[in-house]
């Protein structure tokens, strides 16, 4: 396994110039992504400040944050509006106004975040990368959301900007994300037609080195071919260690998870690295 990952790193480094290779996609050395800021005390999808801090304390370096717009156009950390996730309002897919949202704790305990607060948390924890999952029902929604993101990051330090990793569902959105200064992007395959060949060609052309796939879509041949081309895969969402180990065996690189913590994966990797008698 060590040899395989060494060869993968050589392939990735060959894509970039020496100056770029030091930073571009460096975050992919981490294998677990805290899904929706991570689960906390049996609650998931909160995208809350407490969930973020809990994930940080549990050793995560990659934390996913869902982004939605409030009815008055403010960027907040929320997984859309059609579920309450413990907030006290009637879900009907209509966005809440900012002032109402920000005062409604999840499950009476967990503090809602806006995008500005997410940036502040990143400044407090400079080893953390945040993956952005923009929620929208159309290309126009995505454009509107990332226009807001673009406005919000205009004065953000480059160090923080380089640790913001957008997730992209449609290839047509690449130009939009590049426009707002994002280089590293995680391409989530599945919402449009794809094949191993088409994904590899698109990724190579645009220096995309990570692909996300739902576990229902995992195909060993597809994952292996991506791996051979230096493109790593993250599978979502898995909360069972044995299931993760099965996917590791077919060259899956990492996972979105609510509850499996990095130390558990580290323990497994150390076992794999032990010489066999």
Automatic annotation (TrEMBL):
GO terms for biological process: glycerophospholipid catabolic process. InterPro entries: GDPD-Related (IPR052271), GP_PDE_dom (IPR030395), PLC-like_Pdiesterase_TIM-brl (IPR017946). It is found in: Membrane. Pfam families: GDPD. GO terms for molecular function: phosphoric diester hydrolase activity. SUPFAM superfamilies: PLC-like phosphodiesterases. Residues 1-16 form the signal peptide. Residues 43-260 form the GP-PDE domain. One of its GO terms (cellular component) is cytoplasm. Keywords: Hydrolase, Lipid metabolism, Membrane, Signal, Transmembrane, Transmembrane helix. PANTHER family: PHOSPHATIDYLGLYCEROL PHOSPHOLIPASE C. Belongs to the glycerophosphoryl diester phosphodiesterase family. This is GP-PDE domain-containing protein. It comes from Jeotgalibacillus proteolyticus.
């Amino acid at each position: 396994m060590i040899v395989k990952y060494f060869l993968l790193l050589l392939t990735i480094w060959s894509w970039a110039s020496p100056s770029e290779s030091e930073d571009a996609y460096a975050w992919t050395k981490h294998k677990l992504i805290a899904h929706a800021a991570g689960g906390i005390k049996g609650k998931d999808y909160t995208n809350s400040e407490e969930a973020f801090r809990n994930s940080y304390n549990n050793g995560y370096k990659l934390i996913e944050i869902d982004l939605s717009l409030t009815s008055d156009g403010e960027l907040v950390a929320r997984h859309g509006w059609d579920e309450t996730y413990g907030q006290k309002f009637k879900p009907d897919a209509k966005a809440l106004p900012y002032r109402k949202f920000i005062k409604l704790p999840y499950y009476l305990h967990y503090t809602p975040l806006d995008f500005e607060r997410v940036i502040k948390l990143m400044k407090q924890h400079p080893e953390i990368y945040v993956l952005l999952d923009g929620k929208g029902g159309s290309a126009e929604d995505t454009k509107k959301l990332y226009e807001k993101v673009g406005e919000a990051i205009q004065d953000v330090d480059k160090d923080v900007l380089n640790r913001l990793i957008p997730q992209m569902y449609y290839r047509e959105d690449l130009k939009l994300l590049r426009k707002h200064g994002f280089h590293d992007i995680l391409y989530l395959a599945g919402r449009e037609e794809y094949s191993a060949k088409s994904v590899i060609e698109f990724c190579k052309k645009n220096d995309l080195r990570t692909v996300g796939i739902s576990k229902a879509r995992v195909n060993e041949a597809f994952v292996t071919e991506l791996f051979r081309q230096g493109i790593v895969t993250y599978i979502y969402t898995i909360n069972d260690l044995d299931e993760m180990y099965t996917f590791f065996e077919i060259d899956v690189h990492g996972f979105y998870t609510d509850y499996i913590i990095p130390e558990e994966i580290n323990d497994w990797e150390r076992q794999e690295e032990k010489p066999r008698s």
